[in-house]
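ok trying this again, last paste got cut off
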Amino acid sequence: MRELPDGWAWTTLGECFRWGSGGTPRKSSPEFYDGNIPWAVIGDLNDGAVRSTRFSISEEGLANSSAKWVDPGGLLLAMYGSIGKLGIATTPLTTNQAIAHTQPDPVPPGYLFWYLRSIRSDLNRLGKGGTQQNISQTVIRSVRFPLAPLSEQHRILRSLASLFAKLDNGVAALKRAEADLDRYRASVLKAAVEGRLTERWRSDNPPDETGEELLGRILAERRKRWEEEQFAAFAAKGRKPPRNWKSRYKEPVAPDTSDLPELPEGWCWATVDQIGRVGSGITKGGTKREAARRAVPYLRVANVQRGFLDLGAIKTIMASEDEVRRYSLEPGDVLFNEGGDRDKLGRGWIWQGEIPECLHQNHVFRVRLFLRGCSSELLSHYGNSMGREWFFRKATQSVNLASINQTTLRSLPVPLAPVREQGEVVRRLSDALGALEFTRTAIRGHLARAAALRQSILKRAFEGRLVPQDPNDEPAAVLLERIRAVRERESRRPRPVVDPQAARRTAASALGQNQPLWPKGHGPDSPRRHP
């Protein structure tokens, strides 16, 4: 046990505060719910003021459960799952059994709040259980609590208010800068795919081949590959191609440019179907017609992020040799997610052969360009930026889900620049985005240091090193004896029925103290600004 300054005293959360928890009315009794009594669950805790709850119970539900009233100013502490999450009741409410609560009197609520915030990681380490870690009231009561003289507690709160205000201003500025980076990134991507990023370069470097001419070359290659595949299919069956078999070829549909922005001279609009082959992937749990199958790595939706691949957790799937041939990825393949949640819709990036012999799931589409001289990066950047809104408009929508199919992806209009200019666009875009990510990394480093500094400030506060001690202060030992006497008297009388208006007046009077319960700007009625 570390040594505390003179005048301080070690105690426990159980000795210093009276803890309780709530309960859950029987779910099979609908009459116990949707009444006029606020009923808080852990999801309502926000490390700040709890002004409302998502659920409510009835008077009958309260009477037939272990749910209990919590007065305004009561501190709420999560015991299950999100252990250590905090809240302050600003109105009379009840809670379920996953939340512990106490009325920190005569200790200012802010002092207890910030102490619990400072030891959240310690509370998490005390958690037990399998799927959902939890702590009990017994564990909470046994946690050591450094009790400072009452006057010093208020000096600590004033100091925290001053320090946190400066820290909050810095954090807010960093977050504004991070938001500016997002806007800058969007503007750079837009300029790239609209040809404005290379406008001056284009005037000094006339193309050897325009986008229209390139598209014609791509379409010729597309048809050539189709004819080769059809001829090989007939040969594999020992048959000669029928007369006029080449007339079966279906030209890809050109894009409707009526609502598309004008492109620079030398560029043209094309569809994904014109410039690449769209394919689906292997189906998990699909029909297994072949006995010979082996485990092969494959990409899931979770692996395909917007602008990068997350290869930290690669799973395997049992696949036949034919499936391995059909669904194996090749370097340069552009990946697009089918959807699900709206943020997953059409997001993707490029496969660069990071894992040998890797497949892709059927919820991840693959686009393989017909001409390798064309830029996979430019297509992916377009799909993740300008194409994103197009996917939203064309997707099949449900309540919170959206999805695209291969037909939708094939019809996506994409800007096609001359090959040399595609390379220049990608180079400039890579430089700009690289510098942006460098700045973003620096900002996140500063935010992490701000969070560490906040924790360091709290540590100093509860070690007695944040503000000077005053030898004239009443020692914490005297305060602790007074708390014990109050607790003894409380144990001898029943808990009074809560009068909501009287409870609010009690909270507003700051428990008879002239000092504020909270640092200015950090009370339960203040917006949460700290990380």
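PB: full thing came through this time. The chain has two domains: 9-165+472-512, 209-417.
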